[in-house]
Amino acid sequence: ILQVEVLRDLAARVLSEERFRHTLGVADWAEQLAGHHGLDPVRARCAGLVHDLAKEVSLNNQLRYARRWNLLHYPEDEQSPYVLHGPVAAYWLEHYYGLDDAEVLAAVENHTLGRPGMGPLEMLIYSADLTERDRDFPKVDILRQSLYDNLEKGTLACVEHTLIYLRESKRPIHPLTQLTFDDLQRRLN
Ligand code: DGI
Ligand code: FE
Ligand code: FE
Ligand code: FE
Question: Which residues form the HD/PDEase domain (predicted)?
Fold first, then answer.
C-alpha cells in the first residue's frame, strides 16, 4: 500500500530544504494533472514525493550503487552519472523501503530520461518534474498548458524542450532521451 505521509516524511528526512521544496512542487502538480486526466492522484503524488530521493547522493556513490545493482545499460550512463538518480531511487524504494507499486517505481526510475513505451504515470512525472511551479524558463507556461490539454502531446513537447536545451548547451544526448522522443512522435501520428 502507498502511504503518502510516510513517503513525504522520508523525502523530508533525506533531502535538502531546497530539493524538498521542488519535490512538493512536483507532487502537487502531478497530483493536479492526474486528477484532471483521470489518473490516480495518490500514485501521482507518491511518485512525485520520492522521484529525487537519490539526487543528493554523491555521483561517485550513485555510480557505485548502479554498478552493484546492475542499473547501467548505456555507456552514457557512466559518462553522465547524474542521469542515474532515478534508477537508484527506484531500486532503494523497492528493495529497502518495500514500495511495491510497479507504476510508481517505473515513474521514479524513468523521470530523467523517459523510455520508449512510457505509461501515463511515467509521462506525468517526467513532465511535472520539468514544469513544477518553481521552474522558470521562457517556454514553461506553454508546456504547462500543453500538459493540461493533452498529456501525450505535452510530454512530447517536454522531451523536445529537453533535446533543444541539451543541444544548445552542447551536452551529450542520452540515447533514451532520443528514443523517448521518437516513440512519442510515432504514437501521436
Ligand atoms: O533531478 P531534477 O534536477 O529535478 O531533474 P531531472 O531528473 O530531470 O534531471 C535533469 C538533468 O538531467 C538536467 O540537467 C538535464 C539532464 N538530462 C536529461 N536528459 C538528458 C540529460 N543530460 C544528458 N547529458 N543527456 C540527456 O539525454
Ligand atoms: Fe531528478
Ligand atoms: Fe526531468
Ligand atoms: Fe526532480
Answer: 15-143
